[in-house]
Amino acid sequence: MARVFVAVPISSELQKEILGWEGGFQKLPVRWLSGKNLHITLVPPWEERDPNEVARLLENLRGTLPQFSFLLEHVAYGPNSREPRLIWAEGKSPQSIIELKTAIEECLALPIDEKPFRLHLTLARFRPETFSSFPIKKLDERVMWEEYVTSFVLVESHLSPQGADYEVLYEVKL
């Protein structure tokens, strides 16, 4: 069984911009995601017997949806400020990303997620119990990180004690 999910990959240009921003926060005791692991999750992880079959199904979406862009405008602790466990960047969800997510869920015959999609990019992870030792308790950074989306990817998550590492299994161009 493979643990897979569907995501929007982050371009190398935006990866560099993000890694440059992170340089100012290296004193925080967190596990920063490497550039290649940065992504926007569209369909959360599930256990899959046949990732090749998932890739074959996703191929049906090639060229059927428009390319689009999104803007990440704010970096904060998440997913909620009372019990943070992430550093993430957030932005308004363009209709195009919601339509892409819905098309993927329908293509894979997955249950449609009824919760509103929250555009976010995880930058770092940490254990909630370590937050009390952080030198910065409030993180409220304005950013202007724009990404132009030309594809989405099927990703396998490899879990280890050092954290997850992600391997792109298949890419579908919009």
UniProtKB/TrEMBL annotation:
<feature type="short sequence motif" description="HXTX 1">
    <location>
        <begin position="39"/>
        <end position="42"/>
    </location>
</feature>
<keyword id="KW-0378">Hydrolase</keyword>
<protein>
    <recommendedName>
        <fullName>RNA 2',3'-cyclic phosphodiesterase</fullName>
        <ecNumber>3.1.4.58</ecNumber>
    </recommendedName>
</protein>
<dbReference type="InterPro" id="IPR009097">
    <property type="entry name" value="Cyclic_Pdiesterase"/>
</dbReference>
<feature type="active site" description="Proton donor">
    <location>
        <position position="39"/>
    </location>
</feature>
<comment type="similarity">
    <text>Belongs to the 2H phosphoesterase superfamily. ThpR family.</text>
</comment>
<dbReference type="GO" id="GO:0004113">
    <property type="term" value="F:2',3'-cyclic-nucleotide 3'-phosphodiesterase activity"/>
</dbReference>
<dbReference type="GO" id="GO:0008664">
    <property type="term" value="F:RNA 2',3'-cyclic 3'-phosphodiesterase activity"/>
</dbReference>
<feature type="short sequence motif" description="HXTX 2">
    <location>
        <begin position="120"/>
        <end position="123"/>
    </location>
</feature>
<feature type="active site" description="Proton acceptor">
    <location>
        <position position="120"/>
    </location>
</feature>
<dbReference type="Pfam" id="PF13563">
    <property type="entry name" value="2_5_RNA_ligase2"/>
</dbReference>
<comment type="function">
    <text>Hydrolyzes RNA 2',3'-cyclic phosphodiester to an RNA 2'-phosphomonoester.</text>
</comment>
<dbReference type="GO" id="GO:0016874">
    <property type="term" value="F:ligase activity"/>
</dbReference>
<dbReference type="InterPro" id="IPR004175">
    <property type="entry name" value="RNA_CPDase"/>
</dbReference>
<keyword id="KW-0436">Ligase</keyword>
